[in-house]
Design goal:
The structure is a homodimer. By secondary structure, the first copy, chain A, is an alpha+beta fold. Chain A folds into 2 domains: 135 residues, Jelly Rolls (Sandwich); 77 residues, Orthogonal Bundle (Arc Repressor Mutant, subunit A), CATH 1.10.10.10. Chain A has 9 helices and 11 strands. Chain A has a 4-stranded antiparallel beta sheet. A 4-stranded antiparallel beta sheet of chain A has the order 2-7-4-5. In chain A, helix 6 packs antiparallel against helix 9. Chain B binds a DNA duplex through helix 8.
Chain lengths: 227, 227
DNA sequence: CGACTACTTGAACAAAATCAAATGGGGTGG
DNA sequence: CCACCCCATTTGATTTTGTTCAAGTAGTCG
């Protein structure tokens, strides 16, 4: 595997604590596979043969409710994995996975992973830790979604993207605005208006380019500062 | 430990696949501890010494945002556990836990659990499965919260409580309505109005007593049936 | 150049939050 | 045992927030 790809896998949430030899053993001779944008990797209800790890690009996970309105339950980027549950427990996939950009995905064979897991407590523990972290981030998201009005959710999302805690930041939105909106549980229109409201808080948006004047300001607002 | 308590522990989400001898070893001589209603078990940010398993009663987990508005991130009843992450990874608690009824809680020593986990891949695998299930239910909840209007969320909640899939049901609400409202991400007022709307769908509420005429009807509504 | 797509903006509408007040038990102290 | 108070819940009126529907703008790609 390409050294750059390998670096992503090694630093992934799932495997960052796994030592290199073991990891090589788990992955075997698999390589990331390139997918065009818009490719469906698996459907809700499918049997999944392995854990999927995003090496590059972005994948959205969504569930189709009746009436076709689909709810986005997750968007995963480089270093993040999905399908763990279904692969490990051999249960049907809980959501549909579709690439939302060109993406390269490494699938780790479930059977192989399972056997290594049985033989290696450290690995199991690491994965447990990873699952816990995932759970935790889910709780955070739940909290945001419940409590906060739109503009504040957007502020939180932008702060996360910015990466740093203070100062200014310049970056690009990772994927389409309408998808971000879905992720944040709102319509594209609401998202657009929310961004407009953040403008006088030092957030400049031009196409997908974002500039945040003072991250502290934005974070204060997110965490509940009266205007 | 009391046989009835033991039965709850054995059938708990976390340990249902663990065999009895191992489970006894993990728990050691610990006993469930009784707490009065309103007792804070630990605070957001605390160090937690063990995994908490509800034997009887109910516990709410909530996060305090600034301004005191607290968001309920989970309510756990008999057989459910919480604090797994913090105990296993020795990280600060992510939420505050408080009993909302008289409750008996068994705490499983984290250190002990960790050591058994290392020695026993099956156990680790079982816990991984449990964590995955938890994650999955979280995703469901996320989806509900995002997509559905209030009355339908309430309908879903009631269907879950009813337990069965068809026919009629009579049961009591497990805890206060205002807490249920919080759990469902709405205000008590909205919850009350939502219940009122369900009345002409065959749901009768009198104090905490609930009677559902035909669960199928309610479920249809929850899953998106036009009226 | 023209059609398509993504995004923005506006107006009308719906849902839920908020503010405020009334109801109705349950429990307490007299 | 009864009157009274406290608190959870309900109900009503109002306002905010977000959705929906509709139109307009801009950038992209053939």
């Amino acid at each position: 595997m390409d050294p750059a790809d390998w670096a992503v896998v090694r630093r992934s949430a799932m495997f960052r604590t796994t030592d290199e030899a073991k990891l090589r053993d788990i992955i075997g001779d698999r390589h990331p596979r390139a997918h065009p944008r818009g490719q469906v990797l698996f459907l809700q209800g499918d049997h999944i043969d392995g854990l999927h790890l995003v090496v590059s690009g972005w994948v959205k996970l969504y569930r189709q409710t009746e009436e076709g309105a689909d709810a986005i339950v997750g968007i995963h980027g480089p270093g993040q994995s999905f399908g763990e549950t279904a692969a490990l427990l051999a249960t049907p996939a809980h959501a549909t996975a579709e690439t939302i950009s060109e993406a390269r995905i490494l699938t780790v064979d479930a059977e192989r992973l399972r056997s290594r897991l049985g033989a290696d407590p450290d690995l199991a523990f690491a994965m447990l830790a990873s699952a816990s972290m995932h759970l935790r981030s889910m709780v955070d998201e739940l909290e945001r979604l419940k409590g906060l009005p739109g503009p504040r959710r957007v502020a939180g999302f932008l702060c996360d993207l910015a990466g740093s805690d203070a100062g200014s930041a310049v970056f690009d939105l990772p994927y389409e605005k309408s998808l971000i909106a879905g992720r944040l549980g709102m319509t594209p229109e609401s998202f657009s208006r929310a961004l407009a409201k953040l403008r006088d808080r030092g957030v400049t948006i031009e196409r997908e380019h974002v500039r945040i004047a003072r991250i502290e300001n934005l974070r204060d607002f997110f965490e509940g500062e009266a205007a």
